[in-house]
Specification:
Oligomer: single chain
CATH class: Alpha Beta
Radius of gyration: 16 Å
CATH topology: Rossmann fold
CATH superfamily: P-loop containing nucleotide triphosphate hydrolases
Number of helices: 6
Order of helices and strands: EHEHEHEHHEHE
CATH architecture: 3-Layer(aba) Sandwich
């Protein structure tokens, strides 16, 4: 289904940013994706930094009208990104831009794009090109800690998840189906 102002479910897309140190940024974006799918809107879901069969990817890939792609080459948070890490992230930006401009997707989600920026995998110019080149009817969602001020200023909606208390601090490990 092409999204345009004549046949669109919504005619004014917005830019949403979910950031902050608290839990729930990816979960909020997935909730929005499910809501969009329920309304018949196709979704492009790009996950930066991550690769593998996380629980959310397993279920999303089984749904109709959603394209899920991962642009991570493994765990590198504690090390300097390699040229492969950078190339993968840049490919993610290019694919997301193509998905948005192609008109087949009403919602484009870039999970952990802010972290990819903060780690130097993608530039502020690449992030902002997504905002500038977004078609009027496309909804763009960017998640991850450390959203840059320029992105926050350009967004229509910014939600900051703030950690008040977390059970990880009392020794609870990541649980399948809840955190992974």
């Amino acid at each position: 289904m092409k999204y345009d102002n004549e046949r669109d479910v919504f005619t004014k897309g917005c830019v949403q940013v979910y950031t902050g140190n608290g839990k729930g940024k990816t979960t909020a974006a997935i909730g929005l994706a499910v809501r969009a799918l329920g309304a018949g809107i196709e979704v492009f879901f790009a996950q930066f930094l991550k690769s593998g069969d996380y629980s959310e990817i397993q279920i999303l890939r089984n749904l109709d009208n959603i394209t899920c792609r991962q642009y991570g080459v493994g765990g590198f948070i504690a090390r300097t990104p390699s040229s492969e890490d950078i190339a993968s992230a840049r490919r993610g930006v290019e694919d997301a831009l193509r998905a948005m401009k192609g008109g087949d997707y009403g919602v484009v989600i870039l999970d952990e794009a802010n972290v990819a920026y903060s780690l130097g995998l993608i530039s502020i110019e690449e992030l902002m090109s997504l905002v500038r080149e977004r078609p009027p009817a496309a909804e763009l969602v960017l998640t991850g800690r450390g959203a840059p001020a320029e992105l926050i200023a350009a967004a229509d909606l910014v939600t900051e998840m703030r950690e008040i208390k977390h059970y990880f601090n009392s020794g609870v490990k990541a649980r399948k189906g809840i955190e992974s």
